[in-house]
From TrEMBL:
Domain AB hydrolase-1 per the UniProt entry, residue ranges: 113-369
Family of this protein: Belongs to the AB hydrolase superfamily.
Protein name: Protein phosphatase methylesterase 1
Lineage: Eukaryota, Fungi, Dikarya, Basidiomycota, Agaricomycotina
Alphabetic keyword roster: Hydrolase, Serine esterase
E.C. code: 3.1.1.-
Reactions listed under catalytic activity: [phosphatase 2A protein]-C-terminal L-leucine methyl ester + H2O = [phosphatase 2A protein]-C-terminal L-leucine + methanol + H(+)
UniProt superkingdom: Eukaryota
Amino acid sequence: MSDLYRSALSARISKLPMLPPEPDEDDEESEAADSLGSLPPPVAGIGPTTMPGTRAYASAQRKRAPNPELTPLSASAYFAQATQIAVPDSGLDVRAYYTPPRVREGGEPGTVIVCHHGAGQSALTFALAAGEVTELSRGECGVLALDCRGHGKTATTIPRPGPEGGEDFSIETLTSDFVNTLKVLYPDPGAAPSLLLSGHSLGGSVIVRACPLLQDLKYRLAGVAVLDIVEEFTLEALPMMHSLLDARPAGFGSQEEAIEWHLKTNAVRNPLSARVSVPAIIQPAPEGTSPAWIWRTPLRNTAPYWTSWFTSLSKLFLTARTARLLVLAGAERLDRELMIGQMQGKFQLTVVTGVGHMLQEDDPRKLAEVLVEFWRRNERVVPAGVKKVGER
């Protein structure tokens, strides 16, 4: 559903949605192999005879040797650590990528931007942006990115079937998972750093729902940042989702082919980011089957939850009791509630040009600049007694 919004509105495969996690099985070894090595620089339309997403395209791709310029890259250059976190209350073993903030003078904890990805993606969609945040904030702002239930390297330890069987992807469960994970990471709210919640697409719905829950638990929030999701237009786009999923290939012959497909379809426009994020959303197919690599997250299984994910998003965003930021890709329209809220100065709106739905990957530097400026304005610079952006 991450790409669902823009894909449906533009009716173009070039912005196809949700793409699963990072290299599985042997990817721990591959991560370790280049964990200390320096990353190569970024490598400088649609094929003429085969359309990306069709069987003919997949067949043609498998006949070619993998492109060495599109080999997967480790996220170690962008996060200080990667770990698994046992979250008993959710029955999960959560994958987390983390760069802690530098402790301020006097021992005061800094701020951590907590990132929740969209459906079908993984935490590594924020990898390059995380590295930029660390640089721009000079380490004062940390970044924590989590693989949510059924995505990336997060594993279910206690099955929680949904109402129609399969994994429970209800918005209530995803929100509970997010809050429970933060409670494990920061068991003492008073000693925890302030948290700036950032969510892309589905992740935006999760963070705005988590905001009051965390505040009730006495966590300090620096703000909420919702990335490229508007309730009204997303709900209008939902009927097109199945046809959009039909248009993408069932799998790929190699990780390089998966990366290439995302770049050719403009699902991700930044080659460097695609080399980090795309391997995390596919996994090896069962032995003896073809294609060799398949999508990790079965997005069709999440269909019963699509409408509930985004219903009431605008209202929840506008009523969040903290500073609010909405970042959109291109000059997209706001729905009526958001338009009124913007005129009333209830939130900061930033439009990033020259990017697709995956704005955090397409232009990670720009997003990092927006987030760091938002953090500085609302966490560090605002004098006592002065309201934050969007606060009443």
